[in-house]
Each structure stands twice: as structure tokens, then as C-alpha cells.
Amino acid sequence: MSWIGHPLPRSEDSALLRGLGLFTADEARGTKRISFVRSPIARGRIVSITAPPGATIITAADLEDVKPIRAILHRDDFIPVDQPILPADRVTFVGQPVAAVIAPSLEEAEDLAEAVELDIEPEPAIVGIDDALASGAELVHPNVPGNVTLEGRIETPTFAAAMASASEIVEIEIRSKRQSAMPMEARGGSARFDRASGRITLTCSVQMPHMLRTGLADVLGIPEADLRVIAPDVGGGFGQKMPLIPEYVLAVWAARRFGCDIAWIEDRRENLIAGFHSRDQVYHIRGGFDADARLVALEGDLFCNIGAYSCFPITCGVEVLMAMGELPGPYDFSAYKVRSRGIATNTCPMAPYRGVSRPVMAFAMERLMDTAATQLGISPIEIRRRNLVTEFPYQTATGVPLDAGTYVESLDAAEALIDVSAFRARQADAQRNGRFIGLGFAVFNERSGFGTPVFAGRKMDITLGFETVEMVMDPSGYVEARIGASPHGQGLKTALSQVIADEIGIAPSGIRIVSGDTDRTPYGWGTFASRSMVIAGGACKLAAQGIRDKLVNVAARMLQADPNEIKFADGEARVRGGAAITIRELARAVHHSSHLFKDDFENGLTSIATYDPAGTFSNACHAVIVEVDPETGRVRIERYVSVEDAGRLINPMIAEGQAHGGIAQGIANALHEEIVYDEHGNILTATLADYLVPSCAEIPRIEVHHLETISEATITGAKGLGEGGTIGAPAAVINAISDALAPLGVSPYEMPMTPQRIRALIRASRGAPA
Amino acid sequence: MSERIALALTVNGQPFDINVEPRRSLADALREDCGLTGTHLGCEHGVCGACTVLIDGQPIRACLMFAVQSEGTEIRTVEGLADGDSLHPMQQAFHDHHGLQCGFCTPGFLMLAVGVLESQPDISDEALVEALSSNICRCTGYQNIVKAVRAAAEQMRQ
Predict the structure, then answer these.
(1) Are B111 and B63 part of one and the same domain?
(2) How far is A366 from chain B (nearest CA, A)?
(3) Which of A204, A220, A735, A766 has the fewest CB atoms below 10 angstroms from its CB?
(4) How far is A401 from chain B (nearest CA, A)?
(5) Which residues face A572 on adjacent strands?
(6) Does residue B53 share a domain with residue B12?
(7) B50 and B29 in one domain?
(8) Could you read off the pLDDT of A197-226 as tens digits, one per residue?
(9) What gap in Å lies between CA A561 and CA A567, rounded to an integer?
(10) What is the reported pLDDT for A466?
């Protein structure tokens, strides 16, 4: 039987269900604790920091031998800014760590941190994009003129003529408010000092353990060999746990300096104010359409608030340049002009968050399509059908290659599932009864599973991308695969074991995956960007083929058969129509009778493989029915349909779980979640009572349907699927709200579309004061 | 640091004699003093429910209760759900229905659901969703959690 395609329950579950998972805070029991003194001021000059007598306090003055964090893009239009571990003279956002105290327990450390007196002379803060770009605005960083830290531009040669030829110009401005990835487990690191070797082991809640070790070693000026980084069980990441942060640097520095075990465990308030934000963006979009409602030219002016610093190693370019390069999405046009700016402000820095800029890009393109459909008098389905890419491979306006997908097919399937004509009748009926229901669509694609060929184009100082797998079979026939990817809830270990099982012909229960330990796993980039199933999965397949190739020769000799006639399945090697030997016996023979199998025992029963693909595109169509109460602005989601194509599904149960979770986060982004600053840069949403993460009462049942276009761009045929749900949901939900409220003359272009915003739009459309 | 006091807690039927500051939360006492790290802290301000435990059968936020308040009660945590190697029906249902991903919120959801179903075995679908909305999960989108709790309810009634 094939394990690929089977909804195998997860091997990860057993420990987690019994409370036996090991998360960072669990590992940190018994350590001394660090508590950070954080800036209550968004922008200002540090006058003094005074600790209570006898306290162990660390300030910038103690860290003279520690380098700042410096995220670099090798682009002329990028200005790097150093992020100090602790600032010496100026604070740049509320929540920035300015000093650290160390005490035997968390309570004592927090008491000490509270007793530290900070004297900071406040200066006017630059909070929003408009503040930062205003003429004569103060500078967030003296070396960043106009507060623009990155500015990219693209204009295709055909743009001006194509736009001039358009018979209909559709112009919109969309806004995405700031969000937090809000993993259930906040961040944290436990640094243990080994007196015998002088090494530090940092156990921490991260997605990129190898990259973190490199970053820490560079900043601290020590060899990587002096550090071991472990990502144990990690309670979600969604991008927030990719970057190197000052807190980890400080923890490792302090453990070395004081020769003891020290931990920092982030609390929720710290996480919400200083644990990275995302998607604070405004796009001005102009679409030029011809008389047949075909998009002939697109112009975009994109503004991304990147906060006070670029995150390491990927920089703010991750949002700014993705938005610029991939805005065209699944649509077929070649005339494109775009300007995309990364704008520094006195706010928490940005990190990638599930989908990165794509939820905003899809929101922009899908609101453009619906607005154009209204303006041109055709249906939202028809305008998409006329504009979606249908022939593959396709090269987008920015030169991005699209491999085969099912853009129109997913739309057709969603249309059939919804039964649009029946819905329109019901909608008209509801409206006669004073009820407002609406249907919204979003069609999008998602670049996934890309390695160095794509990352090299971003010109980061560090080019991410490949994954390596080291595989070994022990004498009992069990396989251990050591991976550079670093899963944190996805169920990757189960899915990878299915890929390996099919190659070697053993059950997944005989396969153990080791991840998240720089001492035990080959260098790799971790888990993010919908990449691990494709890239680590591909490397697992290649490494497993290496093991099988060794075994097949041994089996051929033991069975006295032609190697080409031997098949591996169900735990044995069998000659076609003849004798068989168990894989366990083969593994034992290779190890314990190695004198007979010298050629095949070279390097033992091991195999190493690296996979570094150019990437693929997943795609989906989301269709949503909502009801909006115009009196309260409340939105209820009546039905949610997702038709997605992620190539070959390795484990359909896990794939569906990823879709559910991604869509739930997208709905949260569409309707609920917003980080709010006041005009002084104080953050007003520092608890989960203010930052509104939806519960099961707000998330509807989600219908997930799969199309499976087996990818020719990846060796498993799989495409990445981790982010897709989050990408499509805001566009689909807000298009549905727009459709519901069209009779009231309301067109929403902002996310989240909260009850307050809906009420304000309705009041404005009635000419009442907002 | 204020003076520590001696407490005798009963957790999963086992006695724990601990010395804690009066301000020690029950969650910290369970994790740091009893070594029961299955109870997780997601927000420490009573919203997310990751730290939910059962006190005399009632689901309680362990981050909002002082350890001293729990003396003399029967405390149940996720570590006490399984019977040796055999999982509680709720744990088994979460496994069967893919009701967990990263697993950080899972102990809180398990204890919440067990507490709700033990006191209301015939709870309606609507009331169940309302009860489960006490806790936050960031990974699953809830659908499979609700499905798992429904399936476990059947098992627990038998």
C-alpha cells in the first residue's frame, strides 16, 4: 500500500495529549530568570537608568563587545539600520528592551524590573505611514532620509501605452491594519551553561534554529561550535519566531558572563507589544480594463509600515518586495508599474506572519476585481473568469514563472458548490425582508516550496533555501531522519515519515524524525513560507532512495536475484513472484556481516540528500456567504467554501487541518484582530481582552475541497499549503460584506472590517456624520 | 520576596507538599513546584484558557487562582487524564479527529471539555460551542476540536 495520500493520525500527538510535551518554559524550570525593562516611550533620549541597590542589571554599557543586529539587503534602494541589543542613548518604540535584570526566580526578576527607574526624555513619535512621510517629518533613524528604508520600483516597457489604451480605469485604496501572529506559546529562551565544555545550550521557541545559532555567534563574536540551539516542542510560530531577537542574545551573553543557567520566558503583554507585528500596509491601486473587462494594465503605489527595525535575516523586504513582485497574483496581464516603500516608524518591528503581504495583496486584487465588475456591469465570477491565467507555464508581469494550476477550475468548482443562482434568489428575498446577505469570492495563488533560486533574487545578505536530510537505518531496520527543517505544530514528522515509508517499504511507525537541534541535525533553514513538505519532503525522498539503493544490492546478493527484479514493500524485499527477505534481516546483515557487503556498507547504512527546488504555486478559490446586521455592524459567516490545489496531498488530514487553521486566522484578520497605537506610539491592545483573537463561537464550519494538480516542479508532486487559508480569507469575507451591503451603497476597503467600521460606512453612506 | 508558606495540595489524587510565596498562582505552583508542566501558560490574564484545570470538577483558570486557594480541593490536570497507557476518551478523540496541531492549548481544551461533559453529559451542540469558546486555539480553526469533543461525549456516555 501507499502511505502517501493516507490520512494517517499524527505521531506527534501522544506526548502532547498527555501533557508530556517539552516546551521551552518546561525546560527552563530551576533556572535564574531574566526580566527586561522595556521602554514606555516610543521615541526619546535615555537620560538615566537607575537600578535598586544590589540588583544585577545589564545595560548597553555592559555589552560593548556585542555587535548590534544588522539585517542586510544588497540593494541600492535599501538602507540598513543597526538594532542595538540594548540601546545606549535613544529608544525607538514602546516595548523595546532597554535593560535586563537577573534574579533567582521570575517573581523576583519582575519585582526588580519594576523597581528600575528609567528617565527618558520623550520626543514626538512617528507612528503611522502618513506621519513618517509628511514633509519635514522627524527622522526615526538619522541615516534614513524621509523615513524610507526600502523603495522598489518596477515598470514594464508596455505600461504607459497599455494604461492609455484602457477604456475603464478602476481606482481603489485598500488598508490593512496591524496584526500579531499571536502564537499560543509566546517566545522564550533557556540558556544553560555547561561548566565542563564552556558551551551554551539555548532551548528556545523558534522556527529557524540553525539560522539563530549563526546570528547569535556573529553578534556575540564566538564560534558557532560554542553554541547549541534546540527548538523543542514549539507552540506555534506563524513567522513570528523566525528572527534573531535581542532577548536571545542577552540570555546567551548572560549565561556565559555569569556561568549559570538563565532563562527569559516572554509573557503575553511583551509578546503583543514587542513580539513583532505585521501587515500594516496601504495600497493605492489603479487597474485599466478594456471594453471586454480584461485587465490590460495595473499600477500600484504600496506603503508598508515596517516599524523601527528590519528583522534579521530576512529584512523588511519580505513584506515590501513580495508585495511589489507578486501583486499580479493569478491574473493574466503584462503591463505593470509599481512603487513599493518600506517606511520606518517608532513602532514594533515587523516579521513575516502567515502569508506575509499576500493577504493584503489578495485583498487588493480581489477588491479591485469586484469593484471593476460593479463598474463594468458584469458579475464577480465573470470578470475573474475573463482575467485568470489559463495556460501554463506562464510568466507574470514581473517575470515570475507560474507552474500548472487550477485557477479557473477552482472558481468553477466553488461556483457550483455555492449554487450561485439559488443564492442570488435567496439574497433578493432576504433583502425584501430587510436582511442583508452577501457572497464573496477570492481567487489567489501562493508561491511555495522555493529554495535558493528564488531567495537569491531577494538579495539578502544570507540566501536561505535548501534543506538537507541525514538518514540512517539501524540494525533493527528502523530509520532515523535528521532534518534541517524545524516544525512547530504542522505534523511534519508524520507526513515526512509517510514519504520515507513509501520509498523504503516500511511502516511509518518504524521511522523517527529528529528536528530542531543544531547538534543533531544538518544545517537547514527551518520551517516557514509553506516550504517544509516540499523541500524537506523532497530531501527525505532522495535520502530514502539512497538507503533503498544500498539495501537493494544486499537483497539481490542474499536472494541471488537481479536487483531490478526486487521490490520493497510491507517491510520486505521481494523478488518478483519469488523469494523475500525482511528489511530487518537486510539491515542486520549489512551491519553484522559487513565483511560480506563491503561495497554496500561504505559510510554505513546512511544516506544524505539535499533538495533545493525553484518553487511552485499552490492556488485556491474561497467563497463565503455572510449576513450583516446593519444596525450593529455584526457579521455572521453563514457558509465558507475553500477549493484548493496544493498538488499531491501527502496526508489529507493534515492538509485539511492546515486549511482550517489558516482560514480561521484569515477570518480573524478580516473581522477581528487589530493592534492599535495612539498618536504617541503607546500600544492600546496589550492584552487578549483588547487584541481580539476569535474563539470557536466566531469561526464557522469550513468546507475544504481539493483539486490535485501533481506538481512537476517538485519531486514529491506536492505544493506548499501552510499559508493559503490566511491569504484568501480577508478578501473573500470582505467581498461578501461588500456584496451584502451594496444596496446601502457601502464599499469596504479596510481590514479588519469591524462592527465599528461597518457602522461608520453605513452612516457615511446615509450622509450622517461618521 | 515575602515569606513562604507550606501547602498540602492534592493533584490527580496524589499529595504534594510545597512551600510557596502567598502570591504564587496555582498554575506556577503546579508547573514549578509540583513539576506538572502539562498545564500551560498562554496569557496569564485569564483569557486564553491554556492553563485550565479542574478544581472539584469545575474548569478553572489556574493563572487566576492562588495556590493557597486550592488547598483542600481535588485538583485535576492533564497528567491525570490517561489511565496508564490507555488514553482518556477525550484524548483519544482529539487524536482521532486531528483536534490538535502545536499542542500548546490542548491540555486546557482537554480539561475544559472533560469538565463540561462530566457535569453536562447531554449538552446541546450550541451550548457546547458556547462552553468551548472559553478557550483559544490558534492552529486548528476549532472545527476538529468541536468534532473531537462531540465524539468523546458519545464515548463518555457509554
Answers:
(1) no
(2) 23
(3) A766
(4) 31
(5) A569, A582
(6) yes
(7) yes
(8) 999 999 999 999 999 999 999 999 999 999
(9) 11
(10) 96
A218: contact with B, CB 8 A cutoff: no
Q: How many domains does chain B have?
A: 2
Q: Does the CB of A188 have a partner CB in chain B at under 8 Å?
A: no
d(CA A125, CA A139): 10
Residue B84 belongs to a domain: no
Please identify, among B54, B77, B100, the residue that sits at the C-terminal boundary of a domain. Answer: B77
Q: From the list A234, A661, A693, which residue is nearest B140 (CB)?
A: A661
Residue B16 belongs to domain with CATH number: 3.10.20.30
Q: Report if residue B10 sits inside a domain.
A: yes
Cell numbers at A512, concatenated: 523517527
Domain annotation covers residue B135: yes
Query: Do residues B112 and B59 both lie within one domain?
Result: no
Residue with cell 513562604: B4
* Per-residue pLDDT, A597: 82
* Grid cell in block for residue B117: 461533559
Q: What kind and span of H or E run contains A381? A: helix A380-387
pLDDT digits (tens, 9 = 90+) for A87-126: 999 999 999 999 999 999 999 999 999 999 999 999 999 9
Q: What is the pLDDT of residue A769?
A: 59
Residue of B nearest to A722 (CA): B139
B135: contact with A, CB 8 A cutoff: yes
For residue B44, give its domain range. 5-77
Determine whether the interchain pair A16/B50 forms a contact, defined as Cβ–Cβ distance below 8 Å. Answer: no
Closest residue in B to A30 (Cα) is B32
A724 at B interface, C-beta within 8 A: no
Cβ-contact A641, A410 below 8 angstroms: no
> Which residue in A372, A366, A367 sits closest to A331, CA to CA?
A366
In which region does residue A271 sit, left (phi positive, over 0), alpha (psi from -120 to 50) or beta (all else)? Answer: alpha
B135 and B93 in a common domain? yes
Q: What pLDDT does A600 receive?
A: 67
Instruction: Evaluate if residue B11 carries a pLDDT over 90.
Output: yes
Q: Are residues B67 and B118 in the same domain?
A: no
Q: Which of B21, B78, B104 to mutate to test the interface with A (most CBs of A within 10 A)?
A: B104
B45 touches chain A (CB under 8 A): yes
Residue of A nearest to B1 (CA): A108
pLDDT of residue B158: 81
**What digits encode the pLDDT tens for the residues A479-494?**
999 999 999 999 999 9
Which residue of chain B comes nearest to A11, CA vs CA? B95
As a whole number of angstroms, the distance between CA A612 and CA A100 comes to 41
Sheet containing strand B5-11, strands side by side: B14-20, B5-11, B74-76, B52-55, B58-61
Among candidate residues B77, B105, B130, the one where a domain is terminated: B77
Report the residue of B44, B143, B145, B149 to disrupt the A interface, i.e. the one with the largest count of A CBs within 10 Å: B143
Q: Same domain, yes or no, for B51 and B110?
A: no
Confidence of residue A598 (pLDDT cuts 50, 70, 90): confident
Give residue B1's pLDDT: 56
B135/A660 CB distance under 8 A = no
Indicate if B57 and B16 belong to the same structural domain: yes
User: Which domains can be identified in chain A, with CATH numbers?
Assistant: 13-123+187-265 (3.90.1170.50), 281-451+614-765 (3.30.365.10), 466-611 (3.30.365.10)
Instruction: Give residue A1's pLDDT band: very low, low, confident or very high (50, 70, 90).
Output: confident
CATH number for B119: 1.10.150.120
C-alpha A285/C-alpha A171 separation (Å) is 6
Chain A residues in contact with B35 (beta carbon < 8 A): 29
| Distance to chain B for A696, nearest Cα, Å | 5
In a domain, residue B83? The reply is: no
Which residues, 6 or more positions from A350, have their beta carbon under 8 angstroms from its beta carbon?
A276, A277, A278, A279, A280, A304, A305, A306, A307, A311, A316, A319
User: In a mutagenesis test of the B interface, which of A8, A12, A13 is the best target, namely the one with the most B β-carbons within 10 Å?
Assistant: A13
Contact yes or no for A688 and B142 at CB 8 A:
no
A with B: how many residue pairs have Cβ under 8 Å apart? Answer: 178
Average pLDDT, chain A: 97
Q: Which residue of A has its CA nearest to B110?
A: A17
Q: Does any CB of chain A come closer than 8 Å to the CB of residue B55?
A: no
